[in-house]
Amino acid sequence: MTDIVERYNISQQHFWLHGPREGEPVEFDTAAGMWSVYGHPEAQQVLADPATFSSDTMRVIPKGLIPEGEGFSLEGFITQIDPPEHGKLRKLVSSAFTRKVVADLEPRIAALTHELLDAARDRGRLELVADLAYPLPVIVIAELLGVPSGDRALFKQWADALFQRDTKISLAEPIEDQNVDIQATLRPWKEMADYLAGHAAERRRQPRADLLTRLVEAEVDGERLPDYQVVNFAIILLLAGHVTTTMLLGNTVLCLDAFPEQQARVRADRASIPAVIEESLRLFTPFAAVARSTTREVELGGVTIPADRLLMVWLAAANRDPRQFPAPGVFDPTRDPNPHLGFGRGIHFCLGAPLARLEGRVALDILLDRFGTLRTDPEDPVTFIPTPTMTGVRRLPLI
């Protein structure tokens, strides 16, 4: 794996890509003031027990760390809600991602992939992220939601501001002593919330056959969702609905570039594409970490964690735990079983996983049809998203 690190100049912040880590599966990070979970069985234990490891992490964040009245609130975000309310809201939104709804999108995904690759061909070369991996999923999710896909430059601006900033916040010291531009971090939330609130208000006046209208008209326990929750749902769907696939597709092509023998195999046997995608999710886990907070004192990985403590569950490190995955740094699509945590696990398993897998499968199949070899350009280096909690390429020029 060291060869890949050197070949693509991967930052030390993405520590899980730099070979086997030393230390225990659960450790306290003194500098960050929180616990870190690195092991696969330990991560599974956390994700499977929402009663002990709550998704409501804001309750343990010190007051003042996130300014109030800045257009930012995690209230109503399904990723921050525990049972039983979580189950009701999850059921409501999951109706938009039924097996049939997702399967019916395949012809549209294929047509868009060809259109985007045609446009790239006319420009003379392919930069995978800008030309395909970003616009493909954002157009699909925008069409599902019912917002103009032509606004995708705006969506990218917001996603870049939120996910591609190297922002580190420590619970161990006052926010005023940290080098963090909170205003710059929170500004895109407000802009995106205002944008989606405007579209939601328009759907209340003039309903359409789209997901945003379904959210506006949805009821939980006989009551309509409040405006802030409609907007927060829309934010999650818009962001997670495209960022995951953007990273998944870029990372999978990167794996095939780094392991050409696997590219030759999948080119000869297209039925292996799903397994290639699953191994890519393990090796280059897009969302590398998720946060939880303890509701009680608990033993995890041989250590005792007090109640009301913040945990970072490093899915990317868990997916390279040698106790679960032999030769974890090798890209091996034949792994069976491959119980990676690339889409999470438990009640918060990624809602859009079936759509991301479909987009990845269709796009990769077409790329293999249209390109003799998927190969990076040594004179135009790959660049990675700098955020430590994400694993994905920001630019991926191909020759």
Summarize the structure.
With 399 residues, the chain is α+β, with helices and mostly antiparallel strands. The protein has helices at residues 2-8, 40-47, 85-94, 99-103, 106-123, 128-133, 135-145, 152-163, 182-205, 211-217, 227-258, 260-268, 273-283, 315-318, 353-370, and strands at 26-29, 34-37, 53-54, 126-127, 219-220, 223-224, 289-294, 298-300, 303-305, 310-314, 383-384, 393-395, 397-398.
Q: Overview of this structure, please?
A:
The chain has 399 residues and is of the alpha+beta class. It has a single domain (2-398), classed as Cytochrome P450 (Cytochrome p450, Orthogonal Bundle). The chain contains 15 helices and 13 strands. Helix 9 (182-205) packs across helix 10 (211-217) and helix 11 packs across helix 13 (273-283). 37% of the residues are buried. The model has no long low-confidence stretch (mean pLDDT 88).
Looking at how many chains there are and whether they match, the oligomeric state comes to: single chain
Report the CATH C-level class: Mainly Alpha
Shape: globular
Q: Compute the number of structural domains.
A: 1
What Rg do the Cα atoms give?
21 Å
Please give the structural blueprint.
Blueprint: H1 2-8, E1 26-29, E2 34-37, H2 40-47, E3 53-54, H3 85-94, H4 99-103, H5 106-123, E4 126-127, H6 128-133, H7 135-145, H8 152-163, H9 182-205, H10 211-217, E5 219-220, E6 223-224, H11 227-258, H12 260-268, H13 273-283, E7 289-294, E8 298-300, E9 303-305, E10 310-314, H14 315-318, H15 353-370, E11 383-384, E12 393-395, E13 397-398
Parallel strand pairs: 2-10
Antiparallel strand pairs: 1-2, 3-7, 4-13, 5-6, 7-10, 8-9, 11-12
